Amino acid sequence: MSYKVQSDHLGNIGQHGKKICSSCNYFQGSWVVDNHYPLYDAARCPFTKKDFNRQKNGRPADMEYLKYIWKPNSCLIPSFDALEFLMRQRGKKIMFVGDSLSYNMWQSLTCKLYTAAPNSNYTYNTESQLYTVSFLEYGVSVMFLRNEFLVDLVDTKIGRVLKLDSLSTGNLWKIADVLNFNTNHWWTHTGRAQTWDYFQVGQKIFKEMNRTQAYKIGLSTWATWIYANINPLNTQVFYQGVSAVHYYDKQLDLNAKNCQRQTQVFGATFPGPSSSTSTPGEAVVKKRTAYCCEACRFA
Fold first, then answer.
1. pTM
2. CB 268 within 8 A of CB 31
3. Rounded distance between C-alpha atoms, residue 181 and residue 172, angstroms
């Protein structure tokens, strides 16, 4: 997706002091190496879960993949300045809601902030599916709320029911000044990977239904809630699109069947997400008050 957004919404963050273009297509560009990266060591960050610590999980020597940054073709995104970010967001609450994609973004942001202000007092709390890191000196809280579908998944007498037109966790979202949502690939799961037994719309229950249609109904429920409950003058809302497919790409290696042992990225063209799951998200988000970020990164 390609949407133009104003720089004031994203913030002119950066230590180089160069202004971002007032109107820029952030989603056309390429991955380039920046030797100033990475901005933090995952092994030294207290918010890194074992499952997400690549260095400790067998990739200790190869650090080059951590140096890639996204560079738009038509403008400059300044380097991330964590201390400036803390000062600009003083007193604010930032919440990521979704699956592991949102978790990765939450972990990346909290680790960058922790690394930039190692002597700042902080608290780290977990409660059910809500993770909160608060930097007390700045009054900044960064939260992650796990919710793979954004709508309700409940246990009932008949089994696990995914209620496409029901959303009960919204009150938690209301406390945030910045909201970043994502949902996509969990809707496509089948067999043992599927986390629900039935769909429900209104009073009707379905054992199976078209996944694209289910996704569209669920995302429309989320968008309707956002439109009715969030004031865009007070709260910024972002929707994080699905990551581009990267299991196999001839740009990596003509003989490769997957990304195993591939260490470099070449070029800017990669196969996008399946249209069967991405198109409804684009259509719904464009109708509502949210920025659609296919390349949103706190990096």
1. 0.81
2. yes
3. 13
